[in-house]
Amino acid sequence: MRISLQVAAGYFLIVGLAGWFVLDVFVEEVEPGVRDTMEDTLVDSANLIAELVAPALLDPHPQAPLVGRLVAEALEHYRWRTVEAAIWQHRKRTLDLRVYVTDGEGRVVFSTEPHQLGKDYSRWNDIYLTLAGRYGARSTRTTPSLDTSSVMHVAAPVLDRDGGIIGVVSLAKPAYSVAPIVAISEAKIRDRGLVLLAITAVIGALFTWHLTRAIERLRGYARAVTAGERRDPPRSRARELAELADALGEMRERLEGKQYVERYLHTLTHELKSPLAAIRGAAELLTEPDMPDPERRRFLDNIREQSDRLTQIADRLLELARVEQQQTLARPEPVELAALLEECVEGFAPLAAQRDIGMDLRIGRSLQVQGDRFLLARALSNLLDNALGFSPDGGRIRIELLESQPSGRRERLTWAEIAIGDQGPGIPDYARDRVFERFFSLPRPRAGRRGTGLGLSFVREVAELHGGSIALEDRSPTGTRARLRLPAVVSRMP
Q1: The domain containing residue 352 runs over which residues?
Q2: d(CA 259, CA 303)
Q3: Same structural domain for residues 28 and 170?
Q4: DSSP letter assigned to residue 81
């Protein structure tokens, strides 16, 4: 399973379980909380009413009959009152409070329900406990099998002047009267909980995407290194991922350094064998005392030529090694390609004149690139050296600076293309896929001399280091054309 799926599954499992637990607790606590609030209110109301009806239960009280009549009328009128109240999101249209008052024996003397008058409620917990001097309350279902038919009763004692209990006031409130409030509260909690879960899901998705993207960048970097591409280790704000990227970069550098040394020791040893063998053979022949002077000069020239070849191989190999070890340009600077081409062509002009080779330089537009001027000059010199080496005497070399622009809107990348074409024999079919291999070279027309086989490899490394490319086109029988493409400055459309 992909790590992104594992992280997402783990995150959503934890958040989902935590969210479900919290929502369940909140929902489960809504109804008890409402019931506790309702009971607290009933306790206050019962004690208040107990003080109001106390005169009606005091027999020697001079106004007992009048107060009793007023209490009875008030309870009777309460039954028929209408109400229209907007409580939060619940509209209350009925009065649901039930009141009954008993004497000291537990017999009902006043009630909002006429059928209760005269009944003995002394065995009901609310009346029994209150007459015993304790807190009296009970909850009774009018329909035993139906939970919503539950009615809460809360009682308060009616006291005489000496603090004796002479009666009980009991308030009753049916559960269904607050059921809409409970339902609305539960619905709100569920809705808000779902919104919270959705927000956490989005945050989790963003977090998973960010982590997965960082891991994908690391994996892409590892694959690029495996493919031999130049790329800096990816940067990350997460310290652990940044340290991992640095560790991968350091591991790459060490492995590349080891492989680089092993590869070049092998190839260098192989390439040095031929010129060293030629020098050794010529030196042994020169020890013969009766060798004619023409032969001696020929062997001396061979030793000199092979020595020059060894020097060229060493110099080119050092240049190539330096470029290959660079992952990025250290200090890129603006380079005018037109001026650079003119300098390079001027440097090869004496060699071209010795063989009567014409060099035609055509600059369509002076373009500027960001890069290393020295490396670009060495790359162009290698291309011009190849063109001269494969050109016949009296031939012509065409050097062009062209411009190409891919389609774009406001920001467009301009490509500078340097084309160098000669009139040599072209590229044989067997060599077309190997011309950029290290130490692979073709014999040049003049005396069959070969190059070091490192020039085009160097040019390719320089081109890639600058974000460009190099390609060779076989234009037989008219020769070969090298095309060096480099990204130039970015032009802004008005």
Answers
A1: 330-494
A2: 33
A3: yes
A4: -
Together in a domain, 309 and 348 = no
Distance CA 249, CA 234 (A): 9
Residues 310, 334, single domain; the answer is no
State how far the Cα of 135 lies from the Cα of 155, in Å rounded to an integer.
Answer: 7
Tokens representing residue 247 in the block: 């560790």
Residue 375 maps to which CATH number?
3.30.565.10
Q: What is the CATH number of the domain that holds 147?
A: 3.30.450.20
Does 47 lie in the same domain as 134?
yes
- Give residue 50's pLDDT band: very low, low, confident or very high (50, 70, 90): very high
Quick: pLDDT tens for 374-391. 778 888 888 888 888 888
The stretches of 227-336 forming alpha helices (DSSP H) are 239-286, 293-325
User: Tokens 């081409």 identify what position?
Assistant: 341
H or E segment and range at residue 92 = strand 90-92
Flag whether 474 is in a domain: yes
- 313-336: per-residue pLDDT in tens? 666 666 555 655 555 666 788 888
**453 and 471 assigned to the same domain:** yes
More confident position, 64 or 135: 135
CA nearest neighbour of 390 among 268, 468, 475, 459 = 475
Asked if 172 and 156 sit in the same domain, the reply is: yes
Residue-level pLDDT at 391: 85
CB 135 within 8 A of CB 147: no
Residue where the block lists tokens 């369940």: 24
Q: Report the 10 Å Cβ neighbour count for 101.
A: 24
Among 312, 380, 385, residue whose Cα is nearest residue 352: 385
In a domain, 81, yes or no: yes
Pairing of strands 108-111, 333-336: unpaired
Q: With 60 as the cut, is the pLDDT of residue 144 above it?
A: yes
The whole-angstrom separation of Cα 421 and Cα 359 is 10
pLDDT for position 196: 79
Prediction pTM value? 0.44
One domain for residues 11 and 36: yes
The pLDDT value recorded for residue 279 is 74
Q: What does the angle CA 167 – CA 172 – CA 178 come to, to the nearest 5 degrees?
A: 160
Question: Dihedral (C-alpha) 126, 127, 131, 136: value to the nearest 10 degrees?
Answer: 10
Q: Which of 305, 328, 351 is the last residue of a domain?
A: 328
